[in-house]
Amino acid sequence: MNESVHLSAMLHNTADIQLKSRPQALPGGLSAPDNSQNTMNMPGCIAEWLHLEEGEEGPNTFPEPHLGQWYFIAGAAPTKEELATFDPVDNIVFNMATGSAPMQLQLHATIRTKTGSCVPREWIYHLTEGSTDLRTEGRPDMKTKLFSSSCPGGIMLKETGQGYQRFLLYNRSPHPPQKCVEEFQSLTSCLDSKAFLLIPRKQEACKQSQ
Fold first, then answer.
1. Pairing relationship of beta strands 195-198 and 164-171 according to DSSP bridges
2. How far is Cα 179 from Cα 196, in angstroms, rounded to an integer?
3. CA neighbor of 151 nearest in space, from 119, 186, 117
4. What sign results for the dihedral spanned by CA atoms 26, 30, 36, 41?
């Protein structure tokens, strides 16, 4: 069995929002679900998304605050299949550093599988000038956008590619407050990503290679 896992690197209140019976377009390429039978919940969903958009990382400070070590905490997507790549994973630690060329980031990850193996992985991300969009080298279909989080030491990514979309939660601590995970799940569920995966973290993390 191939235990390698593809991981891409590297989370409220608005009034007077009018809803229509058909799905409403949201910023960032998402659409609110057609919830004509449950419209009482929709203003909160729109407010949550607007809060997320306001938390988008500013290009003037990116990427310096996000360099260093991170722990993968949880993921959410519209379907379980879009999270299946993480099924063999027990925990992941990764380090983000500046690349060898301008406008590049280097990601080194150590993946502990549920069978106990350690799988090292590396990716190169290309920065987009004036934006926090990341492009994965060798994966022209993949787009990653970073968002800040109200959770201390946390960050959220929205990752899209051919046939999938998912949200990923990371933190500087391997064990962030439970409230952080609950808020992430609530937000992503509100954005029609109801499939949820919490990394088990039952084993020790693999040591990162120097």
1. unpaired
2. 15
3. 186
4. negative
Query: Integer distance in angstroms from the first to the last C-alpha of the chain?
Result: 27
Taking 3-state DSSP, the helix, strand and coil percentages for the chain, each rounded to the nearest 5, stand at: 20, 35, 45
Return d(Cα 44, Cα 37) in angstroms, integer. Answer: 15
- The torsion defined by the Cα of 199, 201, 84 and 11, in degrees rounded to 10, comes to 20
At 81-120, the pLDDT tens digits run 999 999 999 999 989 888 888 888 888 999 999 999 999 9
What is the pTM (predicted TM-score) of this model? 0.72
| 3-state secondary structure (DSSP) of residue 189 | helix
Q: Hey, what amino acid is at 158?
A: K
| Closest to 83 in 3D by CA, of 195, 1, 200 | 195
User: What is the DSSP code (8-state) at residue 79?
Assistant: S
Q: Where are the alpha helices (DSSP H) in the chain?
A: 42-54, 178-190
Six token digits for residue 5: 């896992």
Q: Which two tokens stand for residue 10?
A: 């590297």
Model pLDDT, residue 49: 54
Amino acid at 18: Q
3-state secondary structure at position 93: strand
CA pair distance 48, 37, nearest whole angstrom: 20
